[in-house]
Amino acid sequence: MCEARAAAVLALAGLLAAAPVAGQAASDYGAHVARLHGEQQRLLAIAREADRYLPAGDTVRAGALTLIVPPALGALARSSAPLAWQLLEAKFGSKARLVAPLEIILQQRGVPAVSPRAPNAVVRAVTVPPEATSDVVAPILARIGAAAINTSQDSALQRWLPWTIDPRPQPPERYGEVYVELATAPWTAVRSCYAGDIAACGRALGLTVGANPLDSWYGIEDRRRLVDRASATWGLRRLPETRACLQQGDAAECDAALRTVPAEFVSPPLGGVARGLLTDVALELGGHGAYERLADGRGPIAARLVDAAGVPTDSLVRVWRARAFADAPRPITLRRAGAWAAMVWAVTFACLGLRSTRWR
């Protein structure tokens, strides 16, 4: 029966991942969705039936966090669950209780699987290695809980923040990623942010929103590159304006092509990691109740972040940018002898490559 449940879950995942065909009529798409929903219910029924034949596990609770575990993993679960709950409560405050419908099943290779307890629970299974300790397992549990909490966010926050808020402290390497993006991204606002323009950082992060995000976040000089990079994603390739934009560099045609894209599909120049870390800074500065203020707000994202952090936008962005620069990847310094050796080896390999028959 374990195999039956696994097959049902895999089939369900495949069905839910199915995308509508381009040009599909609305009525056909609606029928397609209805068929998928019916198939989903059938597969879930198969999975529930399979669960009846699995042994019941022990229940371990910490706050609103629930773990279902085989007896052999009971001690690990009892030491890990409180640590995970502490992480969730510290980051999300009272919103941490949104994990209540979730049941996390701990499993381990060689240990018999167990079934969930609540029939309508949201079930997540995590496999832990035999040598795992609570220091390893607790952050994993907290991350699963955070993903469940994030699903309760309103659409505006989810659209701006396509990155699960991590309950764990962020390592310096994450801010290093932001520095690399600031230093290498081609967009005008990002380059200006790198140079120290805090207002440009706000535009690059999507905090400045006018009537059209394109005008707020991207300069005229960005338009051709934006069309080039996003033409497939946004379905612009078929437009004559796109061809004129890419082949002739016509700025007006680039702009005309981009105007066909719904505003909600346009993402800020800086990616999800940068925006996620800005959110992390806001929650850290805001302290108690910060996530509740962010999640319960209904105004623009910038105003919600300010409310969460308790500081003005420019102060929040300055702290975020300072951390990115503080954790910038360090350049590797070669001694003179090492530099010469590297050059000699590079020339040697180049000569060997040219001698290869592949180049003849």
Question: Care to describe what's here?
Answer:
There is one protein chain. By secondary structure, this protein is an alpha/beta fold. The protein folds into four domains: 2-18 and 27-49; 58-152; 155-213 and 269-331, no CATH class; 219-268, no CATH class. 57% of the residues lie in helices and 6% in strands. It contains 17 helices and four strands. It has helices at residues 2-17, 26-51, 74-92, 134-150, 155-160, 172-184, 188-194, 198-204, 213-217, 223-230, 240-248, 251-258, 272-286, 290-296, 301-309, 313-326, 336-355, and strands at residues 58-62, 65-69, 102-107, 122-127. The chain has a four-stranded mixed β-sheet, covered by helices on one side. Strand 1 (58-62) and strand 2 (65-69) form a beta hairpin. The radius of gyration is 26 Å and the shape is globular. The model is unreliable at 1-24, 337-342 and 344-360 (pLDDT under 50).
